[in-house]
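Researcher: Last one for today. Full complex below.
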Amino acid sequence: MTDYTFVGNEIPRPDAPDKAAGKALFISDLVKPGMLYGKIKYSEYAHARIKHIDTSKAEKLPGVRAVITGYNTPEIRIGFMKDNFALKKDKVRQFRDEVAAVAAIDPEIAQEAVDLIQVEYEELPGVFSPEEALKEGAPLVHEVDPRGKPRRDNVIQLPWNWSEGDVEKAKEESAYIVEDHYQTQLIQQTCMGTAGCIAEFDLQSNLIIHSKTQIPYLAQNDFNQALAAMGLKGKNTRVIVPYLGGSFGTGLDTHGYEYITILLAYRTGRPVKILLNRVEEFSNLSPRQPSKTHIIQGCDREGKLTFREVNMLLDNGAYVSWGATTPTVMLMPISTLYHAPSFKYNAKIVYTNNTYCQAMRGYGNPQATWAIENNIDQLAEKAGIDPLDFRMINKNEANAESFGFKITSCGLEECIQSVAENLEWKKKRGKQKDKARGVGMASLFHTGGGCRIYRSDGTGIIMKLDDFGNVSVSTGGIEMGQGFNSALSIATAEALGVTPDKVSVVFGDTATCPWDVGTHASRGAYTSCNAAIMAAEKAREKIFELAARHFMPRVKSVLKKRKKKDPDFEIPDMDFESPRDPSEFDLKKNTVFLKEEPDNPLVRVSLGELLRTAHFQNQGTMIVTEAFYDPNNTMLDPKTGKGNLSATYTWGAQGAEVEVDLETGEVKILKFVSANDVGKAINRQTLMGQFYGASVIGFGYALSEEYKTDKGRNMNPNFLDYKIFSAPDLNFPLQVELIETNDREGPFGAKGVGEPGLVPTAPAIGNAVYDAIGVRIKSLPITPEKILAALKEQNNT
Amino acid sequence: MKKFDYYQPKSLREAYGLMEKQKGEARYIAGGTDIIWRVKQGLIQADALISLRGIEGLDGIRLNGHLTLGSMVLFRTVERSADLARACPSLAQAVSVLANPQVRNIATIGGNLCNGAPSADCAPPLMALEAVLTLEGPGGKREVPIGAFFKGPGETCMDKTEVLTQITIPEMAADSGAVFLKKGRVSQDISIVNAAALLVMEGKVCRKCRLVVGAVAPVPLRLTDVEKMVEGQEVGPELLDRVGNRVEQAVSPITDVRSTEEYRRALSAALVKRAIQQAHRRALKR
Amino acid sequence: MRPGDEGGKHMKRVIEFILNGNGVSAEVASHKMLLEVLRDTFEMTGTKEGCGQGECGACTVMIDGVSINACLYPAFEVEGKSVTTVEGLVGEGGKLHPIQEAFVEKGGIQCGFCSPGMILSAKALLDENPAPNEDEIKRGISGNLCRCTGYVQIVDSIKEAATRLSGQDPA
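Model: Here's the assembly. Have a good evening.
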């Protein structure tokens, strides 16, 4: 066990003071001289042909500088399957479709102009569920594919079909089998800071865009492609990222509104800003992928899992985005959580005229874990085994391989035990039905060491030391509230030998910061801190080379000056003349010293002093180092699906004690506990904050949040009717324990932990409700309406 | 944001004058926490808003046996008044769980009533207490029992130029208890169902019962049939069972974005029963 | 009626009020809310718009010591009143107010978007109730939504703020 100076402590975040003072700038706060304001006109139908767009009245409104549609701008295709367009022509396929946009001198005029645009539609019949969309003769959401080939149906061809072992054989050999269906709802990220961007072109037609994004470099690539479509091939994009007011996955794609802002900026020759208000944020950004899961699991007489079969039907919505790729992450818990020797997983993705979905914290894992962990409890019950014991029988262990996922460290057992102990499981499970109280638990398995879903999982760091011993760490990663800057500054301080207050993190500019694939998949601190450690080691090498040359002469000069001032001072008897070797030196807390004289106050040089000495002389040098860290992980093989997606994995367990009000159906959480294998806490304070925050999002997913739609239209696009937890809803103890398994790949042993905290929250609660009242709600959220209806049915049978 | 003119009259007379002069759609505005959002969204048309904030004499509180509240009394004030909590505990309860602190700091009792929402949280306790509302307009002053005030979702008996100026709440009898309950989806919410009960006891028997349930009908609903079931009876489980069944039949809830008809029906019964039980307990304590 | 109250689409008036201790004035249109005036006219971008509906509290400021949602507060109504925004809590030399310091120390800030409003609500709470218990704290911030923190460390921060403020000399 290493003793660290800074790692593992509770350290206030470096970005906190500015945020406390209201000085931190978010996209909504940025203005540029001469800036125009953009507003978008959205579709009035879920599915319709666009017959005509009349922009004449809008164009005449004083203060309007541009009105654009898909008909007077170059076509820009977006989305990884290129089935979407920045501005829609011919057809709208969802209420969110952007059909026109305006740039004006102020947002009110822009909105007024948008209201003056008249669009003539011919409404078409729509499909609003995957089942509807799969029916014979169902209207086609896309009549042709992106290459222009006619489509036969609404099924999106994606290879989400994986298996291992022999499920059919395992079924025959199983002592117990359970089968059921589970659903999860649409929920929204509800970042407190809404989405927006400011685009402008320089005089060479290069694009500069300030954007609320988690993927500045992938966005740069997307926008460069858009520039090419606009006839600006070869021009470059600079993406600049301010502080994000939360992101939770919303920043993992480039959005229609960004391309529209770019088109408006190009058309007007001025900076243009589009900022979504809360209603637009709810209705026009992409929520979490909903799911319908058919699951079958079996075990032997002793309770050892024999197989897991999962079939999912996913509502893709109108265009393909990251929602359609969630199965690649769902594959992880499905294949590996309580590894069963045989599994089969198939996910069918279908176009509908509902909203399309993309990334939200957890990226499919919460959906899959909802089904798996409920069904595990069902299987345990059938086998006559307590669910805690069942999980212990099937728990994953370190140094194992499961369908290509290489498990190195694994703290699952400790996590499960911690939850069981803190819930008083043995005392309470099955024993409080008379009070309609129960306990339940669920586990999680998630990426914790990067995530190679793109060919590169890399991240760069540039470390620059100045003349005063300050270190600026330039990173491609993004601070969105998760504590990224804090982790990076602490890792740098620890690895380099300076104090965190000397470290400033520079982020969010593709022109000056090194490349990073994106702050997603809980990879931010993991990859950037590892890169920082590499860059810091290089810097230390250079520092000690400089020390070998300059340290002793500098010390001698200081001592001589002192002797001059104070004749009684005794210069210590040391060898000041012999050349020194770099290996003789060390650097701690901003001070360079001789390893053989670590505590001698006379024989030390501050880092700043050393760097100044090396800089201000003939053939002087300064220190700038860089590193590019790309973890040792692999992409999933396109055919087999096997691959070690992450260099290490996080594990955890959560548990709830609940009480159900039998008259009102209300589920009251009495206590919630969570235990998480985090590898190592770099900043204990921010780490706890991640788990508290994630759990509360999990509570919303479990109990109160639902993006409601009626034939594709969002019915609750505001906080009045989309209910997230407020502080008084946390009226029970929320206990978080960190289990440190000191992963060998992680920076100081740390694993990535941005997402896990909300993965098993819903099934922990659902399983507790079952213990309390013998009723299992299979579709989220678990509302009083559903509980009362289920209790009524239970009473009738 | 839709544009509107904003006037700040200093007297009721000035307010009436402004209202009469308006050519377009005009409304009085109190705290504005409901109206401004709806104007922003284009849910209501308003070319002019006439603020009542600057008009003197509308925010007084007088406790003189009965309780007189000016319509512009802030929720904030009600929350902090021990006198009010004693004189009208069910109203104090309603106000304390309404919206959030920032909204309570500028929203008013009068505004809550004049919105005419079936889920208005101030309505059930005031209706259970049979409050009387004073409406004033250019034509004069009139008193309206609150039971006649609500006409439909978003509609009251007020005419366009009238201002609600005062709410008079009769003194609660000795041996009486008044309670307000609400349920939302989370702790801070528009009521899915709310309910108020007033029980006046005579020994073990309930002499007078007033029950109101909100958000389950076009207006906050007085449950007169159910009240008659309770009056003259002792409060016990068998009575409450019958009450519950009757309440389920009396309400006409809808399914909307917040909840379902079936759930609201069941919840009405549960809340009314609990309100009766708690009012009963309070009556015994007084 | 006052000069400038001509009515019609362009009703405007010059309003005068006190902003973070300074007397200020601005010409505003009749339909503007205080939030826009603070952010656009006075460039005090610390106060945020989170929903425009009075549900999230990101726009919380204090008017005459009382916390309100600036997104629903008609600008005309601020005439003659004293407004405090999060910027107003920062002292000479950038010294943070004890409440702001407590939020920094105790992890009450993650993305920072809700923080100004949250801090103002905390101030309103502590001004009135210097030693709140946990339930009172949660109630005091019940009008401030946070998606990042799960509120736990915010409550810790406010407890810390209460301790720091109680150790100070009364202003």
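The interface with chain B takes residues 1, 5, 7-9, 11, 29-33, 52-55, 57, 60, 66-69, 72-74, 76-77, 121, 124-125, 139-140, 142-144 of chain C (CB under 8 Å). Residues 1-8 of chain C have pLDDT under 50 and may be disordered.
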